[in-house]
Specification:
Pfam families: Nramp. With about 425 residues, the protein is mostly helical. It has helices spanning about 1-10, 15-20, 25-35, 40-65, 70-75, 80-95, 95-110, 120-165, 185-195, 205-215, 225-255, 265-280, 285-315, 330-350, 350-380, 390-415. It has 16 helices and no strands.
């Protein structure tokens, strides 16, 4: 029991990873996978979580041992590697938060029947509210609040999953002909599902920085074993919730012939209404809370992560700039990210899909390289041999790099052809 208490007390980076990852990849893609293709899609979801595991684990491993960020590890490899990561970060800076916030704003408006207000205005309110939470509360508040949010989300999803299983499969599922998975449409959907499951590989740097912040809040440095156990709890939770969303989509929508919207906002509203039709109107608030908690927690963690990683990259690239070392730099970064991404929403709101497509393209193409950089970092000279990944984990890493490379090449070919 004492070991469990210590583990729960030290829940931090793994919990934040789960909160950040359980966003559109789960709410939209996992649910859609179950709705369109049925239970068979549990295979690619599990496969993606297994093959990508080492890349995120290395972020925790490197920081737990060296007490340095993964960004510092890239710099130790050579400045060119840090510039590669900086490029991916720049693209994320101008797209990811704008996309997440506008989806969350639209979801909030749909779920709670808010009319006559522009989505960009609701997004601005969310930017202000979350920015204040991050600036005033800092890492400790983020960690503690997410324990509550993830707990609510987890309980709501367990109850929802049990309810839909008890209600049983919707009529028509047994005679329904599943769409082909290995044609062009199916392959592209698989790329989206597995490419963003559990999240983009560059988020390994975010996990490393959260681990750095977690170390500052602890009286005693945790062992590598404890740090990895804590992360594994969050990672397992991420994979489990993806399967929950898949089951909900499969039981509730598979075989109905319902055409699901490509828009995350419209899709979320469709799903909530379909759930209540299947379970009962009384369940609306339960589904609404689960859906909004999913996106709100993702906005909060992603906003924090993009701010922190931008600061770390700039400090490593320009170490002589005194203003980058000031205590107020985190506040400036959080507000800058909010302002930049709200301007993106205002200017490109109608073309957000194109911006997200750009971020997706860069993330997919760069993923194998970042995965290889992570391996090179945790097997480098600043990592004691005793703490380097074992041969089994290295083999899994190489398999993951091959997996990501195939995805990147195919996606690149699809884009240019």
């Amino acid at each position: 029991m004492s070991k469990l208490k210590i583990l729960l007390k030290n829940l931090g980076p793994g919990l934040l990873f789960a909160s950040m990852a359980i966003g559109t990849s789960h709410l939209v893609l996992s649910t859609k996978a179950g709705a369109q293709y049925g239970w068979i899609m549990v295979i690619p979801i599990i496969l993606a979580n297994i093959l990508k595991y080492p890349f995120f684990e290395f972020g925790i491993r490197y920081t737990a041992v060296t007490e340095k960020s993964l960004v510092q590890g890239y710099l130790n490899l050579g400045k060119k590697y840090l510039w590669v990561y900086a490029f991916v970060t720049i693209v994320s800076t101008f797209t990811i938060l704008a996309a997440l916030y506008i989806v969350t704003a639209g979801l909030f408006m749909n779920l709670f029947s808010i009319e006559n207000i522009e989505a960009s205005t609701v997004a601005l309110c969310l930017f202000v509210f979350i920015s204040l939470l991050l600036i005033i509360g800092k890492y400790q508040f983020l960690e503690n609040s997410l324990k509550a949010i993830i707990s609510i989300l987890f309980v709501a999803l367990i109850i929802t999953t049990i309810l839909v299983l008890q209600k049983g499969q919707v009529p028509g599922a047994e005679t329904y002909q599943r769409p082909a998975i290995l044609n062009e449409v199916g392959i592209l959907f698989l790329i989206g599902l597995m490419g963003w499951m559990p999240t983009a590989v560059e988020a390994s740097g975010w996990v490393s920085l959260w681990s750095m912040e977690n170390l500052k809040t602890m009286k005693e440095k945790p062992s590598l074993k404890l740090a990895l156990q804590e992360f594994n709890v969050g990672y397992f939770l991420t994979a489990l919730l993806a399967i929950f969303f898949l089951i909900i989509g499969w039981i509730t929508l598979y075989g109905t012939g319902t055409e699901l919207s490509g828009s995350a906002v419209v899709f979320a509203d469709q799903v909530v209404n379909l759930f209540t039709t299947h379970i009962g109107n009384w369940a609306y608030i339960l589904i609404a809370v689960a859906a909004f908690a999913t996106m709100f927690s993702t906005c909060m963690t992603a906003h924090d992560a993009v701010s922190r990683v931008s600061i770390d990259v700039l400090q490593k690239l320009f170490p002589n700039k005194a203003y980058l070392q000031k205590n107020s730099i985190f506040t400036i970064a959080v507000l800058s990210m909010a302002l930049i991404n709200w301007i993106v929403i205002k200017l490109f709101g109608g073309n957000m899909e194109n911006l997200v497509a750009l971020a997706t393209f860069v993330s997919f193409v760069m993923a194998p390289l970042i995965g290889w950089m992570n391996l090179k970092t945790v097997t480098g000279k600043d990592m004691p041999k005793a703490y380097r990944p074992k041969s089994s984990l290295r083999i899994l890493t190489y398999l993951g790099i091959i997996f990501l490379s195939l995805f990147a090449f195919y996606y690149f070919w699809m884009v240019i052809s």
